[in-house]
Amino acid sequence: MKATTFTFAIERSDPKSGEAPRVQQYEVEVTEGMTVLEALLRIQAELDGSLAFRYACRGAVCGSCAMLINGEVALACRTQVNGLWTDVISVGPIPNHRVLKDLVVDLGPFFDKDLAVEPWLQPADPPPESERLVVPDEWAEAEPYANCILCASCHGVCPVPERDPEYLGPAALAKHYRFLADPRDAADEERLALVDGEHGVSACDTVWKCVRVCPKGVPPTKGILATRERMETR
Asked: What is the pLDDT of residues 26-48, one digit of tens each?
């Protein structure tokens, strides 16, 4: 299989060392179909074992490998190098998160915001003997929001966290709406109160970047607008 040489310009940083961030370039032979993640693995294995990045499933299921690729937030495992149409590939950490090292960011605050919206079913009736079934037509509104893999891509492109670090963010608010729209849930008023402050749904700029970037088709802005409507009509 014919290989083509690409230059990977990777943002390197190690806050613990006190050194200033820098861009380091690596020449990599890329074959047809190779992904950015595969190229990073080759760099780490053959050129520089100190390069730090996250990955797990390699199949766009876990969301671990979200990063900035040629200025766009994407999953490295599903981004093919040849599909980027340039022989210089820039790679950096996902924005709006504190960098721990190189392409690894601190996702703790992101997960804390997810937990803050209480992302679990809160029904009014006692537990059934088996599972809680739902009619497909009644589940249709909530279903897209259940596809979130918590990759933080939407949070990385959102303009709000830069000025308001306490903003819950599109991922958490999408997860919130997943349960608000679930016909089995009975905690509507309590749920609306969780996102009714200045760092909740009212802070969204509705620029729809989160919808465009989501690798699983989750539409956070749509859910945020639906939540606002619920607040106005309750």
From this structure: 999 999 999 999 999 999 999 99
Give me the pLDDT at residue 234, please: 80
Residue type, 126: P
Task: For residue range 212-228, list pLDDT tens digits in order.
Answer: 999 999 999 999 999 99
Give 30's strand partners. 4
Instruction: Give the model's pLDDT for residue 1.
Output: 59
- Which ranges of 89-214 does DSSP label H, i.e. alpha helix? 108-116, 136-139, 153-157, 160-163, 170-180, 188-194, 209-213
The dihedral through the CA atoms of 185, 187, 189, 190 has a sign that is negative
Q: Where are the domains of the chain?
A: 3-105, 108-233
Q: Which CATH number is associated with domain 3-105? A: 3.10.20.30
Q: Are strands 66-69 and 72-75 parallel, antiparallel or unpaired?
A: antiparallel
